[in-house]
Amino acid sequence: MWRDLAPIGRSTSSGGYFRQPWLSAELELRAWFREAAEARGLEVEEDPFGNLVAWWGPAGPSVLTGSHLDSVLDGGAYDGPLGVVSSFAALDLMRERGVQPSRRLGVAAFVEEEGSRFGRACLGSRLAVGATTWADAAGLTDRDGVRLGDVIEGGRSTLLDGVATYVELHVEQGRGLIELDAPVGVHSAIWPHGRYRYDIAGRADHAGTTRMEDRVDPMLTYAMTALAANKQARVQGQRATFGRIDVRPNGTNAVPSHVTAWLDARAESDAALASLVTAVEKQAVERAERDGTTVTVTAESVSGEVAFDAALRDSLVARLGGVPVLPTQAGHDAGILQDAGIPTAMLFVRNPSGVSHSPYETAETADCLAGVEALADALSGLVTGEVAGEVAGEVAG
User: Fold this and answer.
1) CATH of the domain at 155
2) Whether residues 334 and 199 fall in one domain
3) CB under 8 Å to 213, separation ≥6 — which residues?
4) How far apart are CA 105 and CA 128, in angstroms?
5) 3-state SS record for 21-42
6) What secondary structure does DSSP assign to 48-77, as a single string?
C-alpha cells in the first residue's frame, strides 16, 4: 500500500507532498482508498463533504479508525496517510487472526484535516459532527478565490451515526518517543490551539524616493510582531508561529500598503493560550502606533484543550502492555470526535527525525509494523467487546 501511495502528489524538487483537498493528487488518493476497500470487500460510504468510511462487520454500534489523506503544502509522507494505511493493514491482520467482530468496524479518511486549502483545520470532521455548519463553511475560499460551496454540494452528514468509539493512529510529530526509546505510544490530550489573522494596514509608497522617516510601512509592524510572538512563546514555554504571509502590492520597489499574516498559537492550557495571544497582540498594537499603521486581529479558528477518554485510554494502555502516554501539541480529527462526545483514543508511531509538516518527516518500517500490531490489538478488543465495552455501549445507545 505504501509503495502505491508514495509517488502521489510528491514534488520532484523538494521531495515534499502537495495533497490539497479536491485537487488532482488528493482525488487520486481517494480513488486509491476506494480500491483498497473494494479489494477487501468493504462497503464505502461518502457524506456530502467528501469524508469516506469503508465498513466491515455487522450493522449496529460501530468502532471507527482511520485518519486523513491530505497534506500541508510541501508536507511529509506520513502525516495522515500512515493512519489510513495502518487501519487497512490492521483490519487485514485481524482477519488473519480470525477475529469475529460483534460491532461494525469502519476505516475513515476525513477530508481537509490540515486546512491547507480552505484554511479551516479538521474541516471534514467538524462538518461530519456538526461542529461547523455547512452555511458557515460554504463561503470559505482558497488562495485562488474558489469557494468551497462551488467545489462540493454540502448538506448534512449521517456518516458517524452509531459510531461509539474512535481510535486514530498517527505518526508522532515531535520527539517524545525518541526520548523514551519506544516505537508506539498513546496520546492523553491535545493542547489548546488557534489560528489568528493579522491584518496590518499602511500606505503604499516608492521604495527609492520615500524617506525612511516618512513611511507608513506595515511590513515593519509585521516583522516586530513575528519577533514578539517568538519571544513571548519562548518566555511562556508555549508555541507561536507566523508561517503564512500575504503582502500587497508585493512589489520589490514599493513600500507595502497591506500585510496579512497568520499566527498559529498553541499552549498547555486554555489560560496559557489566552495569555500568549493577548501578549502578542498587545505588542503588535504598540508597534503599530509607532509605525502609524493599524492592526486588526481575527480569530479564524480556536480549539480548546481536548482530553481523550480516560477509560478508553487506560484500557488500551493495559491491553498494549503499558506503552507511554504523552500529550500532543498537534490538532487531529480525533480531537473533534472526542469533543463531539465520541470516546476517542490516539496511538502514535515514533518519528526518528522528530520533524513533521516537512519533507524530512519519516518513520521506520519496524515501528510502523509495531503500530499496526498495536492498532489491531486495540481494535480487536473494541469490536469484540473486550475493551471499554461499557463505554461503546453507552454512547451507541
Assistant:
1) 3.40.630.10
2) no
3) none
4) 18
5) CCCHHHHHHHHHHHHHHHHCCC
6) TT--EEEEES-SSSEEEEEEE----TTB-S
Q: Are residues 127 and 273 located together in one domain of the fold?
A: no
Instruction: State how far the Cα of 37 lies from the Cα of 30, in Å rounded to an integer.
Output: 11
Handedness of CA 95, 99, 103, 109 (dihedral sign): negative
Buried b (16+ CB within 10 A) or exposed e, 341-359: ebbbbbbbbbbeebebbbb
Residue 54 identity (one-letter amino acid): A
The residue among 75, 87, 84 whose CA lies nearest residue 372 is 87
Q: How many helices (H) and strands (E) does the chain have?
A: 12, 15
pLDDT digits (tens, 9 = 90+) for 222-258: 999 999 999 999 999 999 999 999 999 999 999 999 9
What the block records as the C-alpha cell of 120 is 479551516
Q: How far is CA 115 from the centre of its chain?
A: 8
* Domain harbouring 287, CATH code: 3.30.70.360
Long-range CB contact pairs, 21-30, < 8 A, 24+: 21/50, 21/70, 21/111, 21/112, 21/116, 21/117, 21/118, 21/124, 22/50, 22/111, 22/117, 22/151, 22/152, 23/117, 26/69, 26/70, 29/5, 29/69, 29/81, 29/109, 30/69, 30/109
Please tell me whether residues 253 and 356 are part of one structural domain.
Answer: no
Task: Show the domain range for 217.
Answer: 193-301
* Half-sphere exposure for 388 (CA within 13 Å, toward CB): 29
Q: Which of 254, 273, 301 is the last residue of a domain?
A: 301
Per-residue cell: 259: 500585510
pTM recorded for the entire structure: 0.87
For residues 132 and 70, state if they share a domain. Answer: yes
Decide which of 240, 271, 301 is a domain's last residue.
Answer: 301
CA distance 125 to 160: 10
Distance CA 117, CA 71 (A): 10
Q: Alpha-carbon torsion 139, 73, 51, 67, what sign?
A: negative
Residue pair 389/343 in contact (Cβ under 8 Å)? The answer is no
Share the mean pLDDT of the chain: 95
Confidence of residue 387 (pLDDT cuts 50, 70, 90): confident
